[in-house]
Amino acid sequence: MGHLRRSEHASEPHRHYVFLAVAAAVLAILVLTLMPRAAAAGEAWKSILADGKQEFEESCVSCHGATGKGSGDYAGKLIAPPKDLTAIAVGNGGEFPFTRVFDIIAGEVEVPGHNTHQMPEFYNSLKAKDFKPGYLPAHVRVLELTHYLESIQDKPVD
Ligand code: HEC
């Protein structure tokens, strides 16, 4: 009996090694399987923002300016000069109002510049490009635009 108990004790550290080996293997598998996914998610994210930027350059820069700060070619000609689109979050207590911005771009919430003669049929002009080569459906482009605007927000000053 005494002998048995001693050998049980002797196997304790060994069991720790087995546990550590298993834990290390599980960790390695997790890292190896999750890393490419994280990288892929990063890629998808980059392409969403790149698409949003491209759409912004095509449809919004004329009024809101290349940086979104409201210095586009038409800015001076508008009745209501466009606000700084990079200051939306700061102007909203540091929180980017994602749904409201989406709705503004989709034409579901009226803003002075988008639903007047300055910008007739705003969403329709996005919609008109649906299914043209290289264009995603308008609601996807609106979503990408909203994510893009979110990504260019000024950081709130603490
Ligand atoms: C013909 C000029 C014009 C074009 C083109 C235009 N906008 Fe605007 N936009 C305005 C004006 C004017 C306003 C109203 C003043 C303001 O809130 O900036 C406005 C307001 C906004 C607002 C609300 C800003 C706030 O702080 O509430 C958002 C968001 C916006 N525009 C996004 C866009 C996006 C995205 C595009 C391109 C898809 C776009 N606009 C194209 C003129 C334009």
Keyword list:
158 residues; mainly alpha; binds heme C; single chain
What does this structure look like?
- This protein is an all-alpha fold.
- The protein has a domain at 48-151.
- It is built from five helices and no strands.
- Helix 3 crosses helix 5 (138-151).
- The protein starts with a helix and ends in a 7-residue tail after the last helix.
- The model has no long low-confidence stretch (mean pLDDT 81).
- The structure holds heme C.
SS class: mainly alpha
Largest sheet: none
Oligomeric state, counting identical vs distinct chains: single chain
Give the topology string: H per helix, E per strand: HHHHH
User: Quick one: overall form?
Assistant: elongated
Compute the separation of the termini in Å.
Answer: 70 Å
Helix content: 55-70%
Count of β-strands: 0
Low-confidence stretches: none
Output the number of helix runs. 5
Q: Rg from C-alpha positions?
A: 27 Å
Bound molecules: heme C
| Mean pLDDT across all amino acids | 81
Strand content: under 5%
